Amino acid sequence: MDLLITNARYTVTSNSANEILENVSIGITDGKISYIGPDKPGAKKVYDAAGKLIAPGLINSHTHLGMSLLRGWSEGVNLQGFLELVWAAEGAIMDEATCELGTELGALEALLSGTTTTMDMYLNPVATHRGAVRVGLRHIAGPIFFDFPGLDGLQWHQRIERAHQWKDELAKIGGPYIPTYLMPHSTYTDSPENLTEVAQIAKELGARIHLHVSETEAENLDIAQRYSKTPTEVCRDTGILDVPTIFGHGVHLSDSDMKIAASKGASVGHCPGSNLKLGSGLARFNDMRKAGIAVGLGTDSCASSNDLDMFSVMRMAAHVVALRQSPADVDLVSIVRAATIEAARAVGLDDRIGSIEIGKEADLIAIDLHAAHLTPVHNLNALLVFAAGRGDVTDVWVAGDQVVASRTSTKIDLAELINRVNQRVKALDPLR
Ligand SMILES: [Zn+2]
């Protein structure tokens, strides 16, 4: 055994029985969980988890990490106003190196907050992936597609070329395993013809697809006027849903959309923080789950939700259910699972991560329970959703590699990164 995490006061497994174990040790061999049980001698390294809670690393199922550089840039606007402000800023600074820098910042914030995997849609994915892997994140990225040249200046045929090169690029960069994804932005920025082509390439490559779907009522109206369809129906009719697809947001899915998504195995990355902040609406978390859709939680970008805090997202997801339905409809276990195993299912990684079970990759976090706000423990799921925060995360492992130790990155220097970011964002000053 390479590592034994000993004597964890609690272990939240997110396994099929939702077991919470007390006072067990977890062994890791070759990056995978190889042992769960009483303390056992003989490991090469020991981590003392006395007084701590061990949980699966949280999974952020929809974000745009590079936009961490635009935290606080667009306030007091709805999605349309947001896009106008953000696209202007992105046009001014988002070259490849800057996308990489913003993604390093986002990846570091994610890991220090207990998030070990992110579904990241952003410009220049080779650069963003390089940056995120350097920081130690399990970073799902993919080539992006817009009809128009867009901020990366790529023509459509170049986007297609990049898609065909993507698997080789991933192999060159290395890092924790991720599935192959293609990421057309949405049905309102990509024509049905182009979506059809992306779906065809995804089939050829054995890739999955991530795109924004029904984030706002205005989007649904726009697509209805153009095509007399819902965004979900456009996805179905272009063949997008013939490959495993995860929708970003899905706030305004109709009952019929949910049936289509469930029957096609499409999943949703639910972002309550962004939806609340931009006034986009209250997604039907329980209805989507009841329809059979895998629903993961996500933050969206730091431009629309200002941070990458999955603990606050769990809390907001619960609040949205209480507000739309009632407090009695808040199933805390389902909220924790939406940040762990259900998010893993939503992004297509549930065979590898999302729960603490023998054979899974060791994406784990340690939470220090020795705190006034975490005492006493009557209900551990309530503690995770309503009381714990990202500052309580002390240590983080990705595939057995300790990427955060005592609240500090083992991979990059925070002060040096902050300095580089502050230098770079000065280029935005003329736009203020
Ligand atoms: Zn988004």
Automatic annotation (TrEMBL):
Record keywords, A-Z: Hydrolase
UniProt GO molecular function: hydrolase activity, acting on carbon-nitrogen (but not peptide) bonds
Domain Amidohydrolase-related as annotated: residue spans: 54-403
Entry-linked InterPro entries: Amidohydro-rel (IPR006680), Metal-dep_hydrolase_composite (IPR011059), Metal_Hydrolase (IPR032466), MTA/SAH_deaminase (IPR050287)
One Pfam assignment: Amidohydro_1
Record's keyword annotation contains Ligase: no
Record carries keyword Hydrolase: yes
Record Gene3D superfamilies: Metal-dependent hydrolases, Urease, subunit C, domain 1
Official protein name in the record: Unannotated protein
UniProt organism field: freshwater metagenome
